[in-house]
Amino acid sequence: MRKAAQNGSKHAQKECPIFMTLSLIANKWSISILDHLLHAGQSKARFSELKYALGGITQRELTKQLREFEKSGIVTRTVYAEMPLRVEYALTKLGKSLCDPIEALSSWAEKNGAVVQKTRDSFAV
Asked: Is 74 helix (H, G, I), strand (E, B) or coil?
């Protein structure tokens, strides 16, 4: 990360595993999608189930996130040749391995979130 930060180039950032990982999970819906897949019945979920569980997510955004996770090897997509078509998503072993780091980040946020917000508020004055 230091090399990418010192260099400052986008190319160097793309090659940095930390930047790559954060770009994958640091958006409004990623953690919620991963959490739902982790706790899904029989470890898999249908697209419509995910959309319903996530509330305000659009079909376009959910599709985009799931494709990015699939492309990164975090989620598998299984299509069943049935009518109507059935598609299920599940975390891969790699995807499941994200759970501990996300849990650690969540714990940190719960422990320190109030301090961070208080500090931010002091700058707003």
From this structure: coil
Q: What is the pLDDT of residues 1-28, one digit of tens each?
A: 444 445 556 656 667 888 888 888 888 8
Q: Crossing angle of helices 59-71/30-38, nearest 10°?
A: 70
Q: Which of 48, 59, 60, 57 is nearest to 85 (CA)?
A: 48
Give me the domain span that covers residue 50: 28-124
Q: Which residues of 13-30 are buried (b: 16+ CB within 10 A; e: fewer)?
A: beebeebeeeebbeeebb
Q: pTM here?
A: 0.77
Q: Is residue 71 part of a domain?
A: yes
The per-residue pLDDT for range 81-119, each reduced to its tens digit, is 888 888 999 999 999 998 888 888 888 989 999 999 999
Separation of alpha carbons 87 and 78, rounded Å = 6
**Cβ atoms 34, 102 nearer than 8 A:** yes
CATH, residue 112: 1.10.10.10
